[in-house]
Amino acid sequence: MLAFLLRRFGQGLLVVAVMAILVFLGVYALGNPIDILISPDADQAEREHAIIRLGLDRPIWIQFALFARSALTGDLGISFVHGTPAVGLILSRVPATLELASAALAFSVIVGVSAGLLAGLKPRSLLGRSIMAGSILGFSMPNFWLGLMLILVFAVELKLLPAGGRGETQAFLGLQWSLLTIDGLRHLILPALTLGIYKASLIARLAHAGTREVLLQDYVRFARAKGLSQRRIVAVHVLKSIMIPVVTIIGLELGSMIAFAVVTETVFAWPGMGKLLIDSIYRLDRPVIVAYLVVVVVMFVAINFVVDVLYMLLDPRVRLGRELRQ
Amino acid sequence: MSQTRFGRATSEFCESRAALVALAVTLLLVVLAIAAPLIAPQNPYDLARLSILDNNLAPGSRGVSGTFYALGTDDQGRDMLSAILYGLRLSLFVGVLATCIALVVGTSVGAISAYVGGRLDAALMRLVDVQLSFPAILIALILAAVLGKGVDKVVIALVSVQWAYYARTVRSAALVERSREYIAAARGLALPQSRIVFRHLLPNAFAPIPPIATVQFAHAIGLEATLSFLGVGVPITEPSLGLLIANGYRYMLSGDIWISFFPGVALLVVILAVNVVGDRLRDVMNPRLRH
User: B268 and A145 in contact by Cβ < 8 A?
Assistant: First the structure.
């Protein structure tokens, strides 16, 4: 088991290293940052001074070597635009994104599982059919357009909820959270809904298929024959087994929420790291783009690793299978 | 054999009224997109024909020169109906092109990988694993940002994201087929390897692909719209549906909602119709669900 963990860990490190190289090379091709960052009416001396200060006069491999050396110490360069360390800038935006992604994930799991369960129990009913039709609509809806329409209805027409921003935040454990204030929660609802509906639809379909499959199993029939109430059969026997696939994808879904947050944050001007990425792409702020990608890759590899370990701990078949093979 | 299998799949597909309607809508949209230059009231790319005085007109109003705008106009005085037809044309074009290229690349890589096996197979599948562990939107966004704006660049970004799905699916089907007698027979005849892979192995490993390709087509259209909305997709001179929505975003808060609304409806209808077709195809072609 230790060997397995070490091997997964090594693979993770390799992925991080390869992605770092690709990211650096890719972002280097984004354009010539000299033209963007130095004002056209700067004189020659100012230009040269700025180029040396930003390290843009060195050959690309030396730039990469410098980048790699400092990356290992957690220093991914200084933002061209903000003038502060890029990693710090990204990390300062992480709580906002994580808050949004977790809220959306919680919404999608709760709504998705209940809707899928209902539809699976009564597949021929009007409710069941509407849920399944709604789920196709839900995952066909372009994320950003859904956000715009929610803003239109709830912010512009009904004036119930704010159209953008993060609202008032409250400090907790040294970080600022919107979840802890009423105003912050009101700002969180629309973006979390926008981000969550797509995943809720997918989870509903998963739960629907799972429920229909489980209902045909012998142990459910046996529970019925034993005279257990429908409520107990659904709450204990059915729900438990449809949660297995849902739980195993939650970790990966969190990762995909973080990625999709780029779009949602742009629509709602939510000050997370996705919004920072888009702003940095517009301004060709290379260190911030690179830092975002490295931070996200590390996050993904870490999430995958944790999911693997959890999966091994949760599912005895996987655990035993792996040990038997070794 | 294959004729009857195809016939049964067709008749099963037709049992679902929703799927038939979705198929009809998809075909209608394709026809509209192809015929856009003939049926659109205006050429939205021709800036000389636009009247800036007619900007931000509500749907159903008439411009200064008496032109009728069924879906209103945008900030440039562009007729939204024409812009949507041309945008639909571009969105579908990008989706079809990206799906076809990704399909050809992905299925070829998958079949070759399964046939050759060994280190090549391990390396290719490792690449697929790593790529699929990152969300498509993230990879597409970064590639589009690196490559810059342009229809060709968006297509490259979409293909790079989508080939892996086909490669993985075809590989697992081809691994089963590889050990069949007809492959051994083809080898015994000393046929060229490329002929064995592309004429014998690939066609027989192709069965799971159509439903995946349909869903990926819908996905490609959605991704392109997202990239264009974020400003890293198609150029502003030839707006796709996503870019039209982005253009209207600024005016939405002041009440001019139609500039974003109608292109979004068009986009939703396209993706929805294709997804319903794909959903039905998957049900029809999945032998496990057939009882």
Answer: yes
